[in-house]
Amino acid sequence: MAKEMIKVTLIKSLIGRTASQKGTVVGLGLKKMHHTVELQDTPEVRGMINAVNFMLKVES
What we know:
The chain is of the alpha+beta class. The chain is built from two helices and three strands; from the N terminus they run βαβαβ. Strands 2-1-3 form a three-stranded antiparallel beta sheet, with no helix packed on it. The mean pLDDT is about 95. The chain has helices at about 20-25, 45-50; strands at about 5-10, 35-40, 55-60. It has a single domain (about 5-60), classed as CATH 3.30.1390.20.
C-alpha cells in the first residue's frame, strides 16, 4: 500500500533562525525559499514540520 505524501514549501527565510530550526529545515530537504519537496507522511516528518510550522506551507 502506498504511503500518503505531503508537499512542504519553505515560505520564510532562514536568516536569523536558531541552529536547531535551520537543521530541521535542512533535514526536511528544503534548500531555499519557495523550494518544495514531497515527503512521506510519517510521525517523524510531522514532528519536524510542527517544530518549524511558522516557516512552512504544508499541502496534502
